[in-house]
Design brief:
about 15% strand; 11 strands; alpha/beta; elongated; three-stranded antiparallel beta sheet; Rossmann fold; 20 helices
């Protein structure tokens, strides 16, 4: 299905890279009109950063860009051309939301700060997503997913005992915390506008947004004053709580025992009577005190079995367990994702058929169908004619003056 819940809402979307475009994609997937303002001379970095379909470079061939910009319309305008401002003002006048994830001052230098925009569109909803927010002693610092993971403490908490911090393996803030917080804030602002007729400025700090998703470690420090130590995949409260190597090349299974009854079930499944009968291991405290012994016994059992059979055997007895899935497994073999139709194939004029993640829910049993991402500048003339009412002669003149790219 292609829901039109947000039909009639229009964005002048200046966002680029990861977090910003993902935020506005959430709206385009539900029927909002997202006018992606970009340029050929200074393109979105993920357009030129890949990964590229079949390893062939092309400004329209980036899988990363495609996945974060489904359903949008691309308007290619040279923001550095002083004559572009009036055209962009016209787009903003016809929009409900203007969005950007640049550092503080960037939009002001272009003439699109909040006060500039509010002067021509008083009820505009203005979304800004700088790293630290728009004011404060660190506001002018720039950041991306990795650096935000660092300054928020995410990296401090991830790593192995006795070793240094390790990143989460992806730009977690770009793909989870920040886009969803931004989308929620915009939806709240749209509801407020519907009720009052007034717009507002949303100053979303990507650092604050990411900290908001960190959870238990901050709570523990607030309550105890103690900084949690890095333990890798272990837990300070439960045992065993780790990933264990299985049969095959680089195959693993995660096993978590949260209750003493689950420990008894685990011992029965692996057939270790010695562990099962040892009273010193009957509680989590006792197992943590002998963690090396406990994990060695579990690892000896998993080493002879494939991760799927390990997961199934333990889950059948109520022990939480899950194979450590690769991207290949998730896309090609995972039976649950296949059953629910999670991966969608979208046909693209340059890269052909490509698979994308779906919104993670069904609506009345149906998936939200994704529309394809735009080619750069694909909708420029269409938008200027249909949305702004520009005559063909005016559009041709703007192209001749270098305003349109």
């Amino acid at each position: 299905m292609q829901p039109d819940f947000l039909k009639g809402i229009r964005f002048a979307d200046f966002t680029w890279a990861g977090a910003g475009p993902f935020s506005t994609k959430l709206f385009s997937d539900f029927g909002a009109e997202i006018l992606k303002i970009e340029g050929v001379s200074r393109p979105d970095p993920v357009r030129v950063g890949g990964p590229f379909k079949d390893g062939v470079y092309g400004i329209n061939r980036s899988g990363y860009f495609a996945s974060r910009n489904t359903g949008k319309r691309s308007v290619a305008i040279n923001l550095k051309n002083g004559q572009s401002r009036e055209t962009l003002y016209d787009i903003i006048r016809q929009s409900d939301v203007i969005s950007n994830n640049f550092g503080p001052g960037a939009m002001e230098r272009l003439g699109f700060g909040y006060e500039d925009v509010k002067a021509i569109k008083p009820d505009i909803i203005y979304l800004a997503m700088p790293m630290y927010g728009e004011d404060g002693p660190l506001a002018n610092l720039l950041g991306v997913g990795m650096t935000i993971s660092a300054v928020t403490g995410l990296m401090w908490q991830t790593g192995y005992e006795g070793e240094g911090p390790i990143g989460p393996g992806t730009h977690f803030p770009d793909h989870a915390a920040n886009p969803y917080h931004a989308a929620f804030a915009v939806m709240a602002a749209l509801r407020y506008k519907r009720a009052t007729g007034k717009g507002m400025k949303i100053d979303l700090s990507q650092v604050e947004s990411t900290i908001n998703c960190m959870g238990l470690a901050y709570v523990e420090h607030a309550v105890t004053g103690v900084e949690r130590e890095r333990l890798g995949n272990r837990s300070p409260h439960f045992a065993p709580h780790n990933i264990f190597r299985c049969a095959g090349e680089d195959e693993w299974c995660a096993i978590t025992v949260l209750k003493d009854s689950q420990w008894a079930a685990l011992c029965e499944v692996i057939g270790d009577r010695e562990l099962a009968s040892d009273p010193t291991l009957a509680t989590a405290k006792g197992r943590l005190a002998q963690i090396e012994r406990v994990e060695a016994a579990v690892a000896a059992w998993t080493a002879a079995r494939d991760p799927v059979s390990v997961m199934q055997a333990l889950q059948a007895r109520g022990v939480p367990a899950g194979l450590v899935a690769s991207c290949r497994y998730l896309m090609d073999e995972d039976p649950q994702l296949r059953h629910r139709g999670y991966w969608q194939t979208v046909d693209h004029p340059e890269i052909g058929e490509a698979r994308f993640t779906s919104p993670p829910f069904l609506l009345d049993g149906e998936r939200v169908s994704l529309k394809r991402p735009p080619l750069i500048g694909e909708h420029t003339e269409e938008v200027l004619a249909e949305v702004l009412g520009y005559a063909p002669e005016r559009i041709s003149a703007l192209r001749a003056e270098g305003v349109l790219e």
